[in-house]
Structure formats: C-alpha cells, structure tokens
Write a structure and sequence with these properties.
Elements (H helix, E strand, L loop, with lengths): L11 H28 L9 E4 L3 E2 L3 E3 L4 E2 L1 H13 L3 E3 L5 H10 L4 E5 L9 E2 L6 E10 L16 E5 L6 H10 L1 E5 L2 H10 L4 E5 H11 L5 E2 L6 E10 L8 H13 L2 H15 L8
Parallel strand pairs: 1-5, 1-6, 9-10, 9-11
Antiparallel strand pairs: 2-3, 3-4, 6-13, 7-13, 8-11, 8-12, 8-13
Helix pairs in contact: 2-7, 2-8
Length: 284
C-alpha cells in the first residue's frame, strides 16, 4: 500500500532563510546591473590623448597663430608616436585655462610644467623629466645688483608671470621671504623691469631669453650666471583624464629618448626655430 506524504509547512526559521536568500540574490542582481554604470568613467578607453600647453612660453611651447609649437610639444609628439598612442594638440587658451581643463580631466596631458604639491593633486608626473628649465634672475643693466644666492633677493622688488611655479622649495621661499608681484605676461614684466617698477624678474631662462630676442633689446638686461633653481619640467598626465594608465609607458620611453640624446636634440632644434620665427622678430 502506497503512502503519500505532504511536505511539512515551512517553519518561521525556514521562511526567514528563504526570505533572506531572496533579498540577497535581488541585491546582487541590482549591483551587477549597476556596476557597468559605476565603473564606466574609470574604464574609459584612451582612444586619443588630448595635449594642452602654455601658448606663451617659447621656446618650450608657444602658439604661432596656427598651431602649437615648441620643444615640449615636439617631445610629447615623439614619445606618443613611438608608443603608437593617437593624440591631438590644439590651442586651448592661456595657461590658467589649460590648468583648469587639466583639473577637470578635459585634457589628458600638459606639456610641460614643473612638479608642485598643488599640481600633484590633479596631475600624474612620470619619474623622468622631459627637459630642464633653469629659473633665472633677470635684471635691468642700469640697476643690476649682486646675486649669488636666493637670500640676495630679500629687500628687492620682484616680478613673476601669473601662473608660473618654480618648484615647492623656491615657491615656499618666495612666499615667505620675497616681495613679488604678478603680471600677465613676460612682456609686461620686462617693461616694468626696464622702467624700474621692479628690481628683478624671475622666469625660466629659455623663455626669458626668447622674449628678449623678440624685443631686440637684450643689451638693456643682464642675467647672472647663478640660477635661482634648475628644476625639471615634465609631461604630466591628468588624473581625471582617460589616459592616466599610460604613465609607466610614457616614463619608460622618455628615459630611453633621454639616454639616446634625442631630447637634447629636440630642445636645440626649437631654440633655433624660435630665433628664426616671425613671432620672435615681431615688434612688442
């Protein structure tokens, strides 16, 4: 005789376990559905690396009215060409705007600039520098004073170009000990220096000499052979950009090109290009 048995009704504990398991599976399903949306920004592919640069810092980087030029831009091009990374270089306004775009991740690389703690909040710096840009103390020949160390600047009125940074050590010293005012362009600073409104102008040696060449009045100014600092400039990637994962590859390629002398050749070629450019000979 066959017997049928009705399964016992689930007790309170068994029902709770079924409910909990169902809730867990439902939560996992929702998480899996949401995951692609949450991870999309971090997984965005680096399909075309967008490069920005200061348009008024020759011969390292400048805008000639048609396209961006300079040693920094050429070094970035060479590195990315050899790594087969697609890129674009466009004029995107003054340096202050370039930094805002970099902070928002609307460009992927800044070519080139110095490393500071402030910039490290939104930029990634490779270990290998693209070039060295010594900071020089430009003075009026008529009012020149002895300069052998940074302490010699104390008590004199100085000028810098707005947005320029010279590295944490120099920046901290300038903020704490020096009397410095900002101007919008190197041209304005040289004008102020020439008429005695400031006693010295701090800027990169290369860009300072480039502007003196443009003004055709190199004889009015002097540059002490002692530099305030000799700091490196880097090809920096933006933290929020789509190409931050290329940092190690870019660093390795920079090191290779540096050892082979290619970076020095690019810098020399751009110094020569600036000297013969129409912009360098324009009336200020």
């Amino acid at each position: 005789m066959e017997h049928s048995q009705t399964p016992p009704a689930p007790g309170p504990r068994h029902g709770f376990l079924l409910f909990s398991r169902g809730m867990l599976l439902h939560a996992l399903a929702l998480a899996l559905l949401a995951a692609p949306v949450l991870l999309a920004p971090a997984q965005a592919a680096c399909t075309r690396l967008r490069i920005g640069a200061d348009p008024a810092y020759p011969p390292l980087h400048w805008y000639d009215g048609h396209q961006m030029q300079g040693a920094s831009v050429d070094i970035a091009r060479r590195v990315l060409d050899e790594l087969h990374i697609p890129y674009e270089v466009r004029y995107q306004g003054p340096f202050t705007r370039i930094m805002k775009l970099a902070e928002r991740g609307e460009i992927d690389m800044v070519a080139t600039l110095k490393k500071t703690p402030e910039r490290e909040q939104f930029l990634l710096f490779p270990k290998t520098a693209a070039l060295s840009n010594p900071v020089a103390v430009f003075q009026s020949r008529e009012r020149a004073f002895a300069f052998q160390a940074r302490q010699d600047l104390i008590g004199h009125r100085g000028g810098i170009t707005r947005g320029n940074r010279f590295g944490a050590d120099v920046d901290d010293f300038a903020k704490a000990s020096l009397d410095i005012e900002e101007a919008d362009t190197p041209e304005s600073n040289f004008n102020k220096l020439k008429v005695g409104r400031i006693d010295y102008f701090l800027t990169g040696y290369f860009v300072g000499m480039a502007y003196l060449l443009k003004r055709s009045d190199e004889a009015s100014f002097v540059v002490p052979s002692t530099y305030l600092a000799d700091t490196p400039n880097y090809l920096a990637l933006t933290l929020k950009g789509a190409c931050a994962d290329k940092l190690e590859a870019i660093d390795a390629k920079l090191l290779q090109l540096k050892k082979s002398g290619v970076l020095d050749e690019i810098i020399k070629a751009n110094l020569a290009r600036w000297r013969t450019s129409s912009l360098a000979r324009e009336a200020p």
